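Example for tutorial group B:
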């Protein structure tokens, strides 16, 4: 099915308000803010559809540390450290998309639209371009004033469902939110080094939780590059890799999960019924995903005088 034929669902998030966030926050101060972000994302998506996964990952990594405050965007300098140097963030990409949107917004509405809101809006727009649900999100976040790599502690893909759930519940998210947000892997990638321990080339046997055909395919991709220094990437959804849909869950049901945690979602009694529900109904998954993303985007948000609006998303403001 071609991407252009995929129905894009719309829901309104008006019942969801967190802190002083609200839908249409920039209506008076920067009326074209969301349009400008959307146009930047559209241009990049037309050149590289993998930006959907990049932006989803950036948004998740940002919100799971100190909250959705764009601290992940700060560059390290000779006198300042940064979350970017933390291990989990060294392969995060897509920063130039945020830079481009910010540059245009600073010309249109100086010191008005936060970098944290740009990340949230760009992620929302990328998901819709890939065929996913388009949802309204409350805006009004402020940018954070700290970027500490020691705080970057994220759930590893080797965790059990229960182990990963502890990270999510600590941030006010539920089991269903976790299973739903991991569905973003439907457009995701992983480097061989992240999952290689699951492969028969390392274990000496095929992992009983992995489809043998998938194991053979992954071994070929990962081993063919040795002894070079490259670390190949593979799709996490082997079926519809660039399309935002529910096929990720069907892949997990067929033991075609690349990451251990993803695959365990279909086996663990905690999450199995949710996986079955989403696998059977794309509409249900899409709506739950929108709601989960709105909750994710509300974690630890700064408003009022708690943060500021950066001039440059890569650097803290220098007092004038």
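The residue assignment follows.
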């Amino acid at each position: 099915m071609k991407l252009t034929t995929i129905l894009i669902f719309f829901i309104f998030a008006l019942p969801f308000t967190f802190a002083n966030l609200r839908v249409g926050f920039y209506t008076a101060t920067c009326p074209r803010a969301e349009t400008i972000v959307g146009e930047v994302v559209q241009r990049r998506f037309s050149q590289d559809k993998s930006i959907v996964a990049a932006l989803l990952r950036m948004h998740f990594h940002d919100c799971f540390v100190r909250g959705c405050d764009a601290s992940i965007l700060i560059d390290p300098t000779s006198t300042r450290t940064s979350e970017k140097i933390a291990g989990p963030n060294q392969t995060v990409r897509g920063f130039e998309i945020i830079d481009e949107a910010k540059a245009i917004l600073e010309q249109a509405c100086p010191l008005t639209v936060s970098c944290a809101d740009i990340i949230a809006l760009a992620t929302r727009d990328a998901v819709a371009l890939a065929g996913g649900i388009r949802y309204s999100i409350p805006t009004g976040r402020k940018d954070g004033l700290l970027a500490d790599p020691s705080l970057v502690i994220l759930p590893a893909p080797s965790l059990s469902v229960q182990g990963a759930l502890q990270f999510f519940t600590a941030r006010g998210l539920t089991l269903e939110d976790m299973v739903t947000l991991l569905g973003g892997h439907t457009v995701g990638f992983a480097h061989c080094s992240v999952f290689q321990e699951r492969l028969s080339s390392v274990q000496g046997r095929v992992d009983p939780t992995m489809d043998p055909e998938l194991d053979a395919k992954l071994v070929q991709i990962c081993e063919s590059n040795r002894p070079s220094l490259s670390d190949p990437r593979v799709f996490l959804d082997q079926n519809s890799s660039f399309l935002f849909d529910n096929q990720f869950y069907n892949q997990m049901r067929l033991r075609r999960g690349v990451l251990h945690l993803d695959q365990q979602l279909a086996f663990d009694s905690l999450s199995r019924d949710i996986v079955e529900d989403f696998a059977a109904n794309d509409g249900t998954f899409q709506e739950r995903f929108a709601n989960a993303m709105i909750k994710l985007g509300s974690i630890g948000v700064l408003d009022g005088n708690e943060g500021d609006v950066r001039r440059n998303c890569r650097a803290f403001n220098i007092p004038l």
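The chain has two domains: 9-153, 161-291. Compare this with the pattern of hydrophobic and polar residues in the output above.
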